[in-house]
Amino acid sequence: MPRDPSSSALRHHGARRIIPLLLWLTLGFGATARPVSAQADVVAGTVIDGATLIPLSLVRVSVEGTALGAATDARGHFRITGVSGGTVRLAFRRIGYQPVTQSVAAGSVELRVSLSAAAAQLEDVVVTGTAEAVTKRSLGNAVSVIPVSDAVQLAPPQDISNLINGKAPGVTILQGSGSVGSGARIKIRGGSSVTLNDAPLLYIDGVRINNNEGAGVQVQGFSSGIISRINDLDPESIESIEIIKGPAAATLYGTEASNGVIQVITKRGKEGKPVFSLTAAQGTNWFMNAADRVGTLYGCATRFGCLNGQSLQTWNPVNAEEARGTPMFKNGAVSALHADVSGGGATTLYRIGASYQNDNGIEPTNNLWRFSGNMNLSIKPVSTLDINASLGFTESNVNQNYEGGGGTITEALFGAPALVSTPNRGFIDYPPQVLWSTYQAYQRVSRAIASVQINHHPTGWFNQRLTIGVDRAGEDNLELARVPDQASRYWLNGASDLGGAKSVFRNDLTTTTFDYSLNAKASLTSNIHATTSAGVQYFRRQLYTLSAAGAGFPAAGLENINAATTSFFAGEDLIRNVTAGGFIQEQLEYKNRLFLTGALRADKNSAFGANFNLVKYPKVSASWVVSEEPFFHSSWLNSLRLRAAYGETGQQPDAFASLRTYLPVTGGNGAGAVTPNSPGNPNLAPERGKELETGIDASLFRDRLGVEVTFYAQKTTGGLFAQSVAPSTGFPGSRLVNTAVIQNRGLEIQLRGSPIANDKVAWDWAFNFSKNWNKVLDLGGPAFINIVQQFGTPRVDQRHAVGYPLGTNWVIHVLSSPLDANGFAVRQGSICDDGKGSTMACFDGSGNTIAPRVFAGRTTPDKEGSFSSSVTFLRRFRVYGLVDFKLGQYITNNKARAQCQIFKTCLRNYEPAGTPSDVLADDAFGSPFRWAFIEDASFAKLRELSVSYTVPDRWARSFGASSARITLSGRNLHTWTKYTGIDPEAYFVGEAYVRVDQGQTPQLAQFKTTINLTF
Asked: Are 63 and 69 in contact (CB under 8 A)?
């Protein structure tokens, strides 16, 4: 049937008009813009970012010499009426961008103006904990700002952890696992505690929220949960992230802030008619070079050696399973959809958004779905009052694949050619399909974050702010071993396997914030101004846990715990921690270029010992914009700022550490009773972080190059660690004491450049680098303490030692060993490092080990950084890439240790010729000898790569949109490293310092296509 042109045109016209009309009718408050027309008294157009071509909102456009002006809306559009004359000169200004002036003809209504990011950003406004945001020029400390809305456009991330990675010097993202739904540990300026959590505080719109790392099911009993709560946040809803890095900057945040503070600022509505945005993404994850990275195993028909002339056999599990038609790994589809609407008028602004994410990993048991929504409403009932309310919620489910002790990768790495001809097909316990059909682990989360912030500024010299908020995160964690099906019973035939088991534990964590602060300003002289700030805060964190477990289901298909017949367990707990505190701060300003600040914070926390009262934290800082002094003259140095700050913060003990506690037990005649558990410590105090920070900020060559350099010296005193209790006390085990001293010193450098910026080509680049010197100065007596893993077992090969960084490897180091007739190492005559700069025999005459363990490298990187570059050409194409690197970390390659030392499936176990004798010695001598398996895991990774095309406006208008952009992006596309394991980033996420690469999913490569539409 021929198409009806008039009908088609009507449908096309309706598609262009009905969405804005429905949104306007539904919301009831949208500013109606007049249609753009060629009027002689009007100028109008669009302002964009010159590097990314993204429309810029909140750009102030003014007509020079007049009071006329306007601000751009969410589309980057502006319109000024009432201009006169044939030609006018427009000035364009936005914080963080270089100002632009341009002469245009009156009546021009299709102007297109691009702004370039300023290399030095002294006028950027940041959050500091006082009643109002302040400009960077007034701060004596560094604050890293990540413009999330721009970063998401450059290379859409799958989560917040990946978004932060490589964007701020001194902020180290330790990924751990590449499983879909996994998170990362975030370390800011090195480790500072032997015992306590090292995660930074996390705020969203002024409300403190849960930032738990390593959540989820601890599959296999000793590996850790892989999920981080920061990834519950939707990157599409965030405007920017500000990172406050140390005690010198975080004093006003008080107790718990010694590890730094991450401030998340969400997107808000902008004045104008409703703007509707839609983003859709589709892509795939895969295990790059899986066959080579998993590797080939060697052996014979006999499991631990070739007998009677047997020939050497090989088995590559990835290739073998692929050839069989039962691949170990698959490509995992990823998809995402986001929609939002924003707008408002002079008194009311709104933004409503929703996102859906569905990602699949490389195993059928690993996937994620997440739905999140958020709403921001800003009301200005009178000129002196602003009320900002926000509500966000997340529903998600992460199915975890098994890692560490019995997952698919571990089953392959610990397998052998001798098992290929068996039903195991080479795998050590069972083929992957048995694992996938029988075992399941997942975490389901329901989370809501709500806040109200009231800003009152009745006069020009006084303002106050009240923030009230709550974050409630409910986690349901489940691990299930089903009654095996008939095919799996060949491998799962023990009584415990045949009966199945299930464990469930629920965590309900509620964090409540009450924060009031005020500012009062006064002019002491015409050039000297003072700002007095004060505030009080109340924070409460409450954790309710409920757990249950059972085993022995009577039949297949029964999976409820109440159907289990044996091994029941149940537990319940309530943990509450409260902090109440306040601060006062005074800042003196001279001619807006010299700033002196002093402050004092005091806190009381419910976990402090009974004999410890308030803790007080001081702060002083100075900032001097030297380039604005009359004596400063330079043709190439455009701005120069010197800054320095000293501050203190702390971290409280665990909730019950100061209290004497008892455990319930069964007493005589079956009656209930208690037994001693911990003696407690009534003198227990918070750990105290003290930091001196100095730095320089500069811009050069007409603001084309920006430089930020920071040096910090930090010391944690009163560090907590477990001290053994004398048996005479009647209490077992240990108690926490304040005796450790930890030192961190570091250098941070950030360079930003815009060497080319014209109508044809724009090039921006950034380089971040940081170096951290970490050292344990005192442990209260012991020379070292072994690191206790999350499941309670100490590691003898990784410890905290005085004079060394936190978390270091300590193993016996064989320097040389005699070889037998077959070329293998023998014990007698082996020489080891004595740890004192000399050598000694490894064994005594009876073959007992006598050589000591020696330092074998730190487990966390001491250098990290990134280089990123963005090039825009032909006004529509943009190419962006980011390479990040982490150097100076040494991790245990348990793939090599298991294969070469335990299961003897390395090639050198059979053909030792050419292998150094010290390596062969580690293979032969057993577990304490691990020097060959502690590897330098330094690496550089092509983390992000993208190509974007901005569709011409006339094409976008043809399908009803005002703008459109298509982005092709890739992640984790190449790694440069000498590390021989599967992935130099692999470790158990829940562990603060233990670094062992054993069967974790590597960081997955990804390609994604993203389409952004604005209506």
From this structure: yes
CB distance 741 to 774 below 8 Å: no
Rounded CA gap, 226 and 621, in Å?
39
Q: Which helix (H) or strand (E) holds 923?
A: helix 917-925
Phi and psi, residue 697, nearest 5°: -120, 135
Choose among 12, 49, 19: nearest CA to 339.
19
CA–CA distance, 254 with 652 (Å, rounded to integer): 10
Q: Tokens for 845, please give them.
A: 């005459």
Contact present, 769 and 749 (Cβ < 8 Å) = yes
- Would you say the C-alpha torsion 316, 318, 321, 325 has a positive or negative sign? negative
For 78-136, write each residue's pLDDT tens digit.
888 888 878 888 988 886 677 788 889 888 888 888 887 766 667 777 888 887 888 88
Question: Taking a C-beta distance cutoff of 8 angstroms, is the pair 872, 878 a contact?
Answer: yes
Neighbour-count burial of 845, counting CB atoms closer than 10 A to its CB (0-12 exposed, 13-18 middle, 19+ buried): exposed
> Is residue 146 a contact partner of residue 163, using CB atoms and an 8 Å limit?
yes
Which H helix or E strand runs over 130?
A: none
In DSSP notation, 644-677 reads EEEEEEEEPPPTTTTS-EEEEEE-GGG-EEEEEE
Q: What is the DSSP string of 307-330?
A: -TTPPPEEE-HHHHHHHHT--S--
* pLDDT tens, residue by residue, 212-232: 988 888 876 566 788 999 999
Q: In the Cβ-directed half-sphere of 807, how many Cα atoms lie within 13 Å? A: 25
Per-residue pLDDT of 569-606, as tens digits, reads 889 999 999 999 999 999 999 999 999 999 999 999 99
Distance in angstroms (rounded) separating the CA atoms of residues 17 and 24: 11
Q: Is this model's pTM higher than 0.70 or not?
A: yes
827: which DSSP letter?
S
Q: What is the pLDDT of residues 376-419, one digit of tens each?
A: 999 999 989 999 999 999 999 999 999 887 899 999 999 999 99
As a whole number of angstroms, the distance between CA 1012 and CA 1015 comes to 10
d(CA 1007, CA 395): 25
On whether the CB atoms of residues 132 and 156 are closer than 8 A, the answer is no
CB-CB contact of 211 with 579 (8 Å): no
Burial class (CB in 10 A: 0-12, 13-18, 19+), 564: buried
Cα dist from 215 to 449, 724, 791, 991, whole Å: 19, 29, 14, 11
Instruction: Determine which helix (DSSP H) or strand (DSSP E) holds 434, and give its type and residue range.
Output: helix 432-438
Do the beta carbons of residue 492 and residue 551 sit within 8 Å? no
Q: Give, rounded to a whole angstrom, the gap between the first and last alpha carbons of the chain.
A: 32
Q: In whole angstroms, what is the distance from residue 376 CA to residue 270 CA?
A: 11
Measured CA to CA, the distance from residue 176 to residue 155 in angstroms comes to 21
How far apart CA 710 and CA 366 sit, in angstroms, is: 42
What is the residue whose two structure tokens read 């049937």? 1
φ and ψ at 142, to 5 degrees? Answer: -85, 140
pLDDT digits (tens, 9 = 90+) for 522-540: 999 999 999 999 999 999 9
C-alpha pair distances (Å), 820 with each of 298, 312, 651, 823, 828? 21, 21, 56, 5, 11
Which helix (H) or strand (E) segment is 918 a member of? helix 917-925
HEC-encoded secondary structure of 873-909: ECCCEEEEEEEEEEECCEEEEHHHHHHHHHCCCCHHH
8 Å CB contact between 47 and 99: no
Reading the block at residue 169, the tokens are 């010097």
Helix (H) or strand (E) run with residue 118 in it: none
Residues facing 355 on adjacent strands: 338, 372
Backbone angles phi, psi at 3, to 5 degrees: -75, 145
Q: Residue 658: which residues within 8 A CB-CB, separation 6 or more?
A: 607, 608, 609, 610, 680, 681, 682, 684, 736
- How far, in Å, CA of 670 to CA of 641, rounded? 73
